[in-house]
Amino acid sequence: MKASLPMLFDKLSVRSQSGSADNWRRVLVRDIEFLLNDASRSADLKLHDYAHSESSVLNYGLPSLSQRIPINTDPLTLARHIQRIITSFEPRLDPKTIRVVPVVNERQSYVLAILFDIYGTCSLPGDEMLVNLRIALDYSCGAVHVFD
Fold this sequence. Notes:
148 residues, alpha+beta, four-stranded antiparallel beta sheet, 4 helices, 28% helix, 23% strand
């Protein structure tokens, strides 16, 4: 996989710390959180019959979570959906290495949330970085929280 470059906004930012592995990780985590918190509109637009709509910007993000009940949601199906979204819209992660795994934890602090671990490899200039993140899909407010 080819090394990814920073986004244009990050290149132009006054706070840019180009080259720092910690900065790359912080930016990647931020962008994954933005991706997963953006609401996909494909279900509203009825685009299922159009083959290329799944990987288009019309399908960027997750469907709204605030209307679903966690008991009725299959965590494995949701994990596959999240993996497909990250594979489609996060080019800095090697698609062959991305795995999303539901976490079963009886003592989790988020009562109305489903936890997932995300694993993958990010190619940085001159290096590869392993990415291990935990996300919580919080049904109480319809948001996704990413923990580094």
